[in-house]
């Protein structure tokens, strides 16, 4: 029986998972919260959270959203923590993210890639791909959000409204506090850009 050799991408993802876990642990300790308290707030199990903090388990975007809310941040900020630190540069210089760059990670409903470097920004853009047909749990946060579909057909479910089918070129904007979730409308792979406001200072996400 042969053992698969880890690829370079596997190693990069493992390093990102480790950095995200370390960042979650640091934020939790800074907030003076125990793992048990975070588990009670998020509804996630204590053993799972421990595995995430040690970099042994990779959290889904929904799980990251729950962890982020418990720690007073956003799942995108936690995702950005997985990126290697970048050299200091002039804040006025343009920020360029090449195709192979940007913090990313595979999740239960696809893959998300942050389209800016870690750090303060007016908004948080994500590239999102997936082929999941299960809507899963709702995301909900205080900030407004916008998405546009680049390829595939997406079923967008906004809590309390009839689900919308969106195709290439279609977009949606919804206010903060709106429960939202999405999936492939027909089982084919979709590709979209999601842009969320950055939480305002003093406002807990």
How would you describe the overall organization of this protein?
InterPro entries: Cro/C1-type_HTH (IPR001387), Cupin_2 (IPR013096), Lambda_DNA-bd_dom_sf (IPR010982), RmlC-like_jellyroll (IPR014710), RmlC_Cupin_sf (IPR011051), TransReg_Diox_bact_type (IPR050807). One of its GO terms (cellular component) is cytosol. One of its GO terms (molecular function) is DNA-binding transcription factor activity. This protein is α+β, with helices and mostly antiparallel strands and 205 residues long. The protein folds into 2 domains: 73 residues, 434 Repressor (Amino-terminal Domain) (Orthogonal Bundle); 78 residues, Jelly Rolls (Sandwich). 27% of the residues lie in helices and 24% in strands. The protein is globular. The relative contact order is 0.14. The N terminus and C terminus are likely disordered.
Mean pLDDT, all residues: 83
User: Which CATH class of the largest domain is shown?
Assistant: Mainly Beta
Class per helix and strand makeup:
alpha+beta
Amino-to-carboxy terminus distance: 48 Å
In total, the number of domains comes to 2
Q: Give me the Rg, rounded.
A: 17 Å
Helical fraction? 25-40%
The profile of the biggest β sheet is:
6 strands, antiparallel
- The H-level CATH homologous superfamily of the largest domain, spelled out, is Jelly Rolls
> Which strand order does the major sheet show?
1-2-3-9-4-7
Order of helices and strands: HHHHHEEEEEEEEE
Q: Enter the CATH topology name of the largest domain.
A: Jelly Rolls
| Percent of residues in beta strands | 15-25%
Number of helices: 5
**Net shape:** globular
Total strands:
9
Q: Provide the low-confidence segments as ranges.
A: 1-10, 201-205
- The CATH architecture category of the largest domain equals Sandwich
InterPro entries: Cro/C1-type_HTH (IPR001387), Cupin_2 (IPR013096), Lambda_DNA-bd_dom_sf (IPR010982), RmlC-like_jellyroll (IPR014710), RmlC_Cupin_sf (IPR011051), TransReg_Diox_bact_type (IPR050807)
Keywords: DNA-binding
Domain HTH cro/C1-type: 24-78
Protein name: Helix-turn-helix transcriptional regulator
